[in-house]
From TrEMBL:
This is 5-oxoprolinase subunit A. The keyword Heme does not apply. Belongs to the LamB/PxpA family. Forms a complex composed of PxpA, PxpB and PxpC. Its EC number is 3.5.2.9. It comes from Pseudomonas kilonensis. GO terms for molecular function: 5-oxoprolinase (ATP-hydrolyzing) activity; ATP binding. PANTHER family: 5-OXOPROLINASE SUBUNIT A, UNCHARACTERIZED PROTEIN YBGL-RELATED. It catalyses: 5-oxo-L-proline + ATP + 2 H2O = L-glutamate + ADP + phosphate + H(+). It is an enzyme of class 3 (hydrolase).
Length: 261
């Protein structure tokens, strides 16, 4: 049976300002990337999402980012290595503490936004994030952009890496994500998304924004949770996978039906 993980960025509401529908999304995904307070999220909200994820047997991971609440973590930054290592350790530690209070634990780390895109190719910042993960818990899995240099860099450093693709993002011919500022960078039609992701899962192929077919080896698919169509997209995608014999399961062995390498 073909299997794939569905993940989404959750826990990003801040006080009275909601961001997405975490409860609805948790009914559809197998992994939850939970904000750690630097780009979004507040402790009470984060704890609530952790508890909801736990009740649904959804695997949780730390969604670490730059210290950038105003920019939602989507602004490029150049922290020193000491700053970045400390910030990533701090965020993972905060989520670990909240998870422990809820009676569960975190299993992986997925960087957010600008940090995610930067470390895909920036060896120095990638090395800092890798070092931070290894320092706090080398058993944590890193969720990273399929085909990016960080995948091999992290594996050589001894981390387990799972590669992911993005359901609602357009790709360039080189396998990178199209910049959000450009037209067509974000795909909104659930049916188009489902068709693209089915082909990705079954054939490992996706069509870039300029019509070039590229190969992407991914074991997890991200559905962004911070827009109005997120839940509808996730529902259509999940239904399409089930209808076509694709099993949805976490990439973490032994958790929520996980075990895929």
């Amino acid at each position: 049976m073909v299997s794939i993980d569905l993940n989404s960025d959750l826990g990003e509401s801040f006080g009275p300002w909601p961001m997405g529908d975490d409860s609805a999304m948790l009914d559809l995904v197998s992994s939850a990337n939970i904000a750690c307070g630097f780009h979004a999220g507040d402790p009470a909200g984060i704890l609530s999402v952790i508890r909801e994820a736990m009740s649904r047997r959804v695997v949780i991971g730390a969604h670490v980012g730059y210290r950038d609440l105003v920019g939602f973590g989507r602004r490029a930054m150049e922290p020193s290595s000491a700053e970045l290592i400390g910030d990533v350790i701090y965020q993972i530690g905060a989520l670990q503490g909240l998870a422990k209070a809820a009676g569960t634990s975190i299993h992986y780390v997925k960087p957010h936004g600008a940090l995610y895109n930067t470390i895909a190719n920036d060896a120095r910042q990638a090395s800092d994030v890798i070092a931070a993960i290894k320092a706090i818990d080398p058993e944590l899995t890193l969720l990273a952009l399929a085909g990016a240099p960080i995948v091999q860099q992290a594996r050589q450093a001894g981390l387990r890496v799972v590669c992911e693709a993005f359901a609602d993002r357009a790709y360039s011919a080189d396998g990178s994500l199209v910049n959000r500022r450009l037209p067509g960078a974000v795909i909104h039609d659930p049916e188009v998304i489902a068709k693209r992701m089915l082909r990705l899962v079954k054939d490992r192929v996706i069509e870039s924004i300029d019509g070039v077919e590229i190969t992407i080896e991914a074991d997890s698919i991200c559905i962004h949770g911070d827009n109005a169509t997120s839940v509808a997209t996730a529902r259509v995608l999940k239904e399409a996978f089930i209808a076509n014999g694709v099993h949805i399961a976490s990439f973490i062995p032994g958790v929520n039906g996980g075990g895929r390498e």
